[in-house]
Amino acid sequence: MRTVAVIGGGASGILAALTAAEDAENHVVLFERQQRLGRKLLATGNGRCNLTNTAAAPEHYHGAEADFVRPALAVFSTQDTLDYFHGLGLLTQEEYGGRVYPLSNSANSVLDVLRFALARAGVEQRLAAPVREIRRHKKGFTLRTDEDERFCHALIVACGGCAGGKLGGVKDGYELLAPLGHKCTGLYPALVQLITAPEYPRALKGVRCPARLTLRSGEAVLAESEGELQFTDTGVSGPAVFDLSRAASTGGAGLTLHIALLPLTEAELFALLLRRREQYPTLETGETFTGMLHNRLGRMLVRYTGIDAAAPLGVLKERDLHRLAAAALDFCLAVRGTEDFDHAQVTAGGVKTTGFNPETLESWFVPGLFACGEVLDVDGDCGGFNLQWAWSSGRLAGRLGR
Ligand SMILES: Cc1cc2nc3c(=O)[nH]c(=O)nc-3n(C[C@H](O)[C@H](O)[C@H](O)COP(=O)(O)OP(=O)(O)OC[C@H]3O[C@@H](n4cnc5c(N)ncnc54)[C@H](O)[C@@H]3O)c2cc1C
């Protein structure tokens, strides 16, 4: 019998443990620093767990080595993942944008079927057992916890990243791997709210709307996205913002966010505003966008242009209507940064992938050492891509190079 240790009882570590346990020669020990497995998993998808995306492919992933994810995604694709979970008794449903959720709409269901599988596979679970140190031997490793030391023949590090601190996101994985020669890239919060100049967002707090977003550094476009936008106390949030938050986090200072609040061209919107002026010459300018946008948002746009909101529409010049149209199609906020790791869903950056064989996820430097999940320098887009990486890489690492 050989002992296989997995450090980290999150999505990738559980899949790695289950996969290693399929080989009857292996006794698998799963170490988890928290009191229970999969705490972060329970919080995913607002408690619904967006467990994968039917469009999962390398172009939805980021990191220094763009192609690193390819073999893992090929070995354990979205369809393989769905087959696997269906085999464990989970029912799923696909929603908008290829996002897949449990039919129960509860992340508990995902964790529950994994817990049942771990018990059936005879995986030894060491809960509330943070691994503090890895000591390498000629053949194998010793893991030190606060209570004891444990020898293993093969080791899988699945400690996750430092995003979601309140759910157990820590830097342990980076720190445990460093003495073994595995260096880390810079670390940035991603899938996270943007902090902007607060004046307008604060007044619009709670307003949600569909929008097209462009993130710029000077004239250069760093990222674009489309979808739901939400105004918050400190800036902007929502899926469309998450999609460009990685670029905001890594893009340096002096960024601006340009928001198109209507799916119209300037000419189309200008024509609508002309008609409104004709139809309602006595209406207050503050009501210009009534019926087109959320009322608070419409009034805020008028304020943003500096045009007197109390003036009747009939007195506005054509150039004023152009200014109003331009505001709705290019509402610009100065970006001051992103929220921190505690508020982020994922870590951009991680242990350098150049140190691991993408075909097996085994270390190039330390035979018998594997890594999977978010601890590596891989992060995915919003929509189930990060959990798919956790499943795919966990499955591949759990094969232990076979
Ligand atoms: C609020 C939130 C919502 C999210 N929603 C989604 C979503 O809907 N869809 C999606 O695809 N992704 C989502 N994500 C991202 C996704 O949860 C992660 O990318 C994924 O969980 C990473 O899996 P992992 O196994 O690498 O790490 P984790 O799931 O973080 O697991 C790592 C585990 O290792 C343990 N650990 C760390 N150090 C040690 C140590 N020294 N000893 C023992 N154990 C240790 C940790 O306690 C943790 O349980 C969300 C993230 C957050 C924070």
Question: What does it look like?
Answer:
About 30% of the residues lie in helices and about 25% in strands. The protein is built from 12 helices and 21 strands. It has helices at about 10-20, 40-45, 70-75, 80-85, 105-120, 170-175, 200-205, 240-250, 265-280, 295-305, 320-330, 385-400; strands at about 1-5, 25-30, 50-55, 60, 90-95, 100, 125, 135, 140-145, 150, 155, 190, 195, 210-215, 220-230, 235, 255-260, 330-340, 345-350, 370, 380. The strands form 6 sheets. Strands 13-16-15-14-17-18 form a 6-stranded antiparallel beta barrel. The chain has a 5-stranded parallel beta sheet with strand order 7-2-1-11-20, covered by helices on one side. It has a 3-stranded antiparallel beta sheet with strand order 3-6-5. α1 (about 10-20) packs parallel to α5, α1 runs parallel beside α12 and α9 crosses α11 (about 320-330). The longest helix has 15 residues, at about 105-120. The relative contact order is 0.20. The model has no long low-confidence stretch (mean pLDDT about 95). Flavin-adenine dinucleotide binds next to α1, α2 and α12.
Strand content: 15-25%
What is the 3D form?
elongated
Bound compounds: flavin-adenine dinucleotide
| Topology, number of strands | 21
- The secondary-structure class comes to alpha+beta
Helix coverage percent of residues?
25-40%
Would you tell me the overall average pLDDT? 97
Q: Provide the spatial order of strands within the biggest beta sheet.
A: 13-16-15-14-17-18
Strand count, sense and barrel status of the largest sheet are: 6 strands, antiparallel, barrel
So how many helices? 12
Low-confidence stretches: none
Instruction: Specify Rg, calculated over alpha carbons.
Output: 25 Å
How far from one another are the termini? Answer: 16 Å
